[in-house]
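Q: Here's a chain of 272 amino acids. Please give me its 3D structure as tokens.
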Amino acid sequence: MRTAIDPLTPSTVPADLVFDDVRIERGGRVILDHLSFRLPHGSITAVLGPSGAGKSTLLHAITGELVPSHGHLSALGVALAYRRRDLLALRRRIGVLLQGNGLLSDLTVAENIALPLRMHTRLSDALILRLVQLKLNAVGLVSALDLYPRELSGGMARRVAFARALALDPPLMLYDEPLTGLDPIAIGVIVSLIAGLNKILNMTSVIITHHVQQSLSIADRVLVLANGGLAFDGTPAMLYASTDPLLLQFLRGEPDGPIAFDASRNPLAVAA
């Protein structure tokens, strides 16, 4: 097994997420291989790549839903052990903002945000309400406390889902396409919240996204997945300076190139 060598994150710097020569398979087919990187505490990392490159697969590996067939993976200083009790304990420390928000339509905004607090703590109703108010204040939506998801705009619903993901004060936040389906103003709000709360709450954030420019504006680091592995690992400035044809095609949005227009020439096009 290779040892992960990461010039961007020296081994002396605490890392909240470590992949060491990780291989991830689905249905007997290798989706991602030879993944080695270390993401330092407090950083914001954008994970980019064409559709089907394995971005969602990477997220599912971090949350323990997919077990690597090779290599080692650790999150928040704990090597992933795939026993149910260990996974539940880890997942309580990882916040996930889902692309579809995942709000329960028959619960109010306050009840949606309170749900993880009721499931994982024994706090009093009064304290839970106070925490819900604090989370809503963090995303600028205190006035939405008693509204239902159907009464929210798309941007407001995303912010409520953000507040719920923060309910248990997770040190690691995962964002699954947080900007999809939002108007430019709402995108700006979410981008600002991700950057601001990452700093204020001293978190580590991983953003899986197709929104290149917006995510790179706040990212410390960029991972680009393509062709079954890690096509790029570096800073946004390094990515923009790259002359790699695949990276240039992706950044420019060109319809054909190393990533072929004809889907039959892209064997990983259904790897999600």
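Q: Can you summarize the key feature?
A: Confidence is low (pLDDT under 50) at residues 1-5, 267-272.
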